[in-house]
């Protein structure tokens, strides 16, 4: 999940056209105007959430996440973080800041003690580069 968050941060930052996710763009700019499109957006978000839920469940089975943790809630949190990073990237937040967001989000997950003990220390990112 950490790799997913960091890759998401890099992906939204490195998007040269700043097109981002069409679902996010539509929700932000036009969801109030097209009820049929809202249905499709909800379906797309449901598919994304379903994929993330499978990842969360796999992490729980593997012993990386607390098996009693709120699986749908974590999936929705990951989706919200990803979409939020996209908005921040469009607003000009740099890659280092987005990776800090990813790191903080991961640290906030209900990781098991075993998973925390196996984490490799990450180098501290610097804004001075």
What can you see in these coordinates?
- The radius of gyration is 16 Å and the shape is flat.
- The chain is 68% helix and 0% strand.
- It is built from 6 helices and no strands.
- With 129 residues, the chain is mainly alpha-helical.
- The chain has helices at residues 2-13, 22-30, 35-62, 71-90, 95-107, 113-118.
- The two termini are 26 Å apart.
- α1 (2-13) runs parallel beside α4, α3 (35-62) crosses α4 and α4 packs antiparallel against α5 (95-107).
- The model has no long low-confidence stretch (mean pLDDT 82).
Concise synopsis of the structure shown:
With 129 residues, the protein is mainly alpha-helical. The chain has 6 helices and no strands.
């Amino acid at each position: 999940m950490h790799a997913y968050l960091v890759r998401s941060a890099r992906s939204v930052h490195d998007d040269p056209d700043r097109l981002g996710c069409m679902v996010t763009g539509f929700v932000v700019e036009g969801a109030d105007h097209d009820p049929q499109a809202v249905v499709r957006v909800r379906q797309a978000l449901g598919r994304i959430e379903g994929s993330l839920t499978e990842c969360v469940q796999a992490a729980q089975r593997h012993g990386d996440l607390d098996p009693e943790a709120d699986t749908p809630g974590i999936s929705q949190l990951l989706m919200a973080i990803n979409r939020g990073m996209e908005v921040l990237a469009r607003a000009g937040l740099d890659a280092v800041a987005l990776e800090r967001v990813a790191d903080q989000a991961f640290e906030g997950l209900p990781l098991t003690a075993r998973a925390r003990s196996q984490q490799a220390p990450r180098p501290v990112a610097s804004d001075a580069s």
